[in-house]
Batch of 3 targets.
Target 1
Amino acid sequence: MIYEFPEKTEPIRQGDIFVGIPKPEIELSQGLPIIDEDQNIETVPWMEVAADEQPITVVLAVQPVTAIVLTQDCDARRAADITLCQIRDFFDVERGVSKETTPKKLIGKIVSQSKVNLKWFYLPPNNRIGFSERMAVDLLTTLRVAREDLQSLIPLRRGRLNAVAEDHFRERVAYFFRRYAYDEWYPFGKDEIEYYPNYATLEPSDLFPWQR
C-alpha cells in the first residue's frame, strides 16, 4: 500500500497524515462573538473588528479533521507554522465520480478525472491509517498549525505517504499552486460557445462580451 508508519521519534515531513487537526469554523457574515475584559460576550460585525485593528478574544467553533502536511521537509523542520490540507471522503471532493459505479469503471474514472481535476490527490482505503473508504486530499482547504503545536500532536500522526506517493504528491501540489487558472471557454465566438462541452453549466454572467 502507499502508506508508511513512522516512529513517533521521526520528524514531521511532507505527506504526514494527522487526525484531530483543528479546523476553525468562522462565519464573518454573522459577526464574531467577542469576549470583553469583563468576560461578557457580544457579537460584533467583522468590519468593525477589522477597522479597530486590535487583537480580540472570540468564541470560536473548531472541528477536528484529518489532514496531510503540505509544507516541504526543510521548512517543516524550522518554520514557525506548518500548512496542512484537509482530507475528506473522495466522493465529496470529486463530485464527477459516482460511488455506485462498478470497480472497473470507478478505477478508470479516478485515473481520468485526476488528469483534469487538479484540486485533489487520491488516497486509497487502509484500515491501519484509519481510512475505511476512498479519501482525497482537498487542496482547496488549507489549515495552519504552529510547528511546536503540531510536534506535540505527533501521537495523532497515523502515517505518511511512501516514497512513490510522496513524490507524486509533491509534484501535484507544486503544479496545483503554480497553475494558470483561466476560463477555458474564452476563445470561442458567439456562434461557437454553445458547442462548448460544459455550456449548460455556464451562467449568462460567465460569458465574455464577444460571446453574448
Note: The mean pLDDT is 92.
Target 2
Amino acid sequence: MSIDLSVVVNFHNMTREAPRTLHTLSRGGQRGIDALSYEVLAIDNGSTMPLSASVVEGFGSAGAEFRYVFHGTKSPSPVEAINAAVRRARGRYVVVMIDGAHMVSPGVLAGMGAAFRAYAEAFVATLPLHLGPGVQNVTVLNGYNQSAEDAMLARIDWQRDGYELFRAAGSTSDGSMGWFGALFESNCFGMPKAAFERLGGFHPGFMSPGGGLVNLDFFRLAVESPDLAYVLLLGEATFHQYHGGVTSNVALQAHPWEVLHAEYVRLRGNRYIRPVRPPILLGTMPRQAIELGLSSANVGLKWWGQVPR
C-alpha cells in the first residue's frame, strides 16, 4: 500500500532521546495531518543499548505506523542504514533525519505535505537548532549536559505544544543565521524518494563516526540540483538534544572538523563550500519563534544583500 511520507530517523544508543523525538513525530505531536498517511522507520544503527521495539511501535496509530528496524553493524557511520531504510520506504516522498536526537516542531510533516503539493519535485528543509542557552559546543563548557537539559525540558509543556521548544532553544546549530540566512545542512529534510535515489543517496564513502560530513554533502547536492525546488519551512525547526554527539557536543577546540573535512576532500576532490541558493519560504511564524525570526531577519537579510548576484 502506498503512503504519502516515509520518515527515516536514525538512532544510535539513544534510549533517553528517542522517545522524545518519536513523540514529536507522532500524531500527538504533529498538527494538521489528519489527511496525511505516513510511516516512521526508526533505525537503530548498531546500538549496544538498543531501543525497545514495543516502545517505538507504541507511538503509532492506525494512520501512522511506527516501525523499529535494528541495523546490525560495527560501522560508526549511519550511511548504509539510512540508504537501506530509504529503499524499503513505502512513501512516494521520504523525510530523512540522520541524527535521532533532533526533536521536530509540530508543523513539520504538514509543511512537508504542503510543499510537495505545491512543488512535486522539491527538496524541503528545516532549520536545525540547539536546545539550551546557546550552541552546545560552547554551553558544554559551562556545565550544560543531559541533567541540565532534562530539568529545562521539564519546565515547559512541550508534549502538549511542541512550539514551546523554541523557548528552550538558544541558538542555531551553526552559522546559518536562521530562516532568513543560508543553511549549511538540515537535520530533517524531505524529497521524492526517486530524487533521493537519483542523487545517489548518501555517499557510501563517508565512514567517519556519525557519517562525517555526509549530511552537508547531500544537502549541497540537493540544493544545487536544478530540477528540485528548494523549500525551507518557515517557523518550523528541529531541536538537538544533548547526547554526547561526535560534533555537536564537543568543545570547539576538540571539534574533529579537519579530520572529517579531509574525508570529504578525498571523496569529492575539493573543499566543502555551503550552497548559496535563496530558498522558497513556506509556512507561518508561531508566536514562540518570533524573537528568533526577528534576529534571523536582521542578520540573514543583510547577508543576502551582500551576496554577489
Note: The mean pLDDT is 93.
Target 3
Amino acid sequence: MLLSAEKSGIYRISPKTGQRTFLVQLDGNPSMRYNDGKLDPCGRFFVGTKGDTEDLPERGRLFSYDGKQARTLVAGTTISNGIGFSKAGDILYFIDTPTKKVGHYEYNLEKGEAVFDRHVVEVVGDAWPDGMCVDVDDMIWVAEWGGGCVCKWNPETGEKLCEIKLPCSNTPSCCLGGDDLLYFYITTAKAAAMDEPLAGGLFRIPIRS
C-alpha cells in the first residue's frame, strides 16, 4: 500500500487497483500543506507541514498517526522536512529546514513519544538541509537544496564523512533501496533560472558492493 499526504488529508492507495481510502486529516488549515513523510519502525506515519504558498514561521508541525490516534510531536516549525530513525528505533532525526540543522530526539518507540535532545548536524553556506535518511550503520544522509549534493554525516560526532555530488542544484530527498539496500536513490528538482538538463530526474547510485 501507498500513503499519500494531500491538501484534503492522508490517503491509503492500492498500487494494484488505484483505490483510494481516506484515513485522516491532520491539519485542515488551508494556508498549510504537508511536506515530507516517513514510517517509524512500528509503522506509524510521520508527516510535517509548511506554508502552502509562502513561509509561515513557526506555524508548522510534525505529526504522527498510528491508524487510530494522531498526535503532534514537534510544534513551532517553519518548513518541516527530513525524518529518520536509528536502527534501534530509539532516536528520531528531524529537519526544520530554516534552522539549517538536524535535530536529535529521544524516541520512545513503544509509546510513540519524542523529546528533543540536541542538534547533531549543521549545514553551512548557501545550501539548505532538506530530506534525509539513516543507513544500516546509523549514519545519516542529508539532501541539500541548493547544494547539489547529498552528504553523509556521523550523528555522534557531527563529522561529514562523504559527499555525493549531483549535476543538479536542488536535491530535495534521498532514500536507500534495492536488494540489501545496495542503492541510494536521490530526487532532484528543476529551477527555472538554471540550465540543468537532468534536473527533475531520479538518480540511482550504488553505495555498497
Note: Residues 79 and 97 are 5 Å apart (CA to CA).
